[in-house]
Design a protein that fits this description.
One of its GO terms (molecular function) is oxidoreductase activity, acting on the CH-OH group of donors, NAD or NADP as acceptor. The protein is an alpha/beta fold and 264 residues long. It contains eight helices and nine strands. The strands form two sheets. A seven-stranded parallel sheet has the order 3-2-1-4-5-6-7, with helices on both faces. A two-stranded antiparallel ribbon has the order 8-9. 43% of the residues are buried.
Amino acid sequence: MTAAAPAASAGPSAASRIAVVTGASSGIGAATARQLAAAGYRVVLTARRKDRIEALAEEIAAAGGRATAYALDVTDRAAVDEFATAFQKIGVLVNNAGGALGADPVASGDPEQWRQMYETNVIGTLNVTQALLPALTASGDGTVVVVSSTAGHGTYEGGAGYVAAKHAEHVLAETLRLEIVGTPVRVIEIAPGMVRTEEFALTRFDGDAEKAAKVYAGVAEPLTAEDVAETITWTVTRPSHVNIDLLVVRPRAQASNTKVHREL
Ligand code: 8X3
C-alpha cells in the first residue's frame, strides 16, 4: 500500500496561481500586478494606500482579471501576520515594496533615513517572506521574487544608505535560496537599474520635482515600470524547475551605476 503524498510534494496546486505583490500602489508593483493578472494569476495587491490598490483591483477586474486589494504596511509585523492568516493559499510573492530616501554623502547622511530604508526594503521583505513561506511551500510550487536593484550589486556616491539596504536585500534572497533548497520554492532576484516611475525619484528627493528630473536628464530611454514587470513576469512564468537566480536589467544608456550616457 502506498502512503498518501504529503501536501508539499503533491505538485502544483491552484494556490500556485495566486500572486501577492507588495508595493502594488504604483510603479513596478502596479505594472507587475497588471501583467501577472493578464498572465492568468489571481493577484493580491498590497500597499499602504488603500484607495490606489482598490482602484487598480477594479481596473484589473474590468480587464477580465482577478484581483483583491489588501491595505498593508510591510514594516508592521502584526499586520503582516494577520494578512498571512487571511491568505493561506499563495503561490507567488513579489517583494517589491521599498524605495530610496535621500542622496547624501556618508559624511552628512541622515541616520533616520538609513533606518527607514532598512525597515521598508529589508525588514519589510523579511516580514512578508517569513509570514508567507509556509503557504508558498504548501502550494507545492512556490516562487519568492525579491525586487532589489543594481544598487544591491555596486555602490555610487550619495547612494550609501539605499545601496546598503539593497545589498542586504540581495543577501536575504541569496541566503534564503541556500536555506530552502529541496523545498518546492524558487527564489528569484530582479535587480533593475535606472527606471523612470512616477514616484521613485520624487520620494527620494522629498517631492523636489527638479532634483527628481535630474536623475533622468538627457537619458534617451530609461526603463519603464512595464519593462521591469515584463522581466518579473517572464521569470515567474518559467517552468517550475527553472530558477532565474538573478536578473540584472538596465536601460541601454546605462552601462553601470555610475556610467550613464546623457544627451544634454
Ligand atoms: C534604483 C536604481 O541607480 O537609483 O534602484 O540606485 S538607482
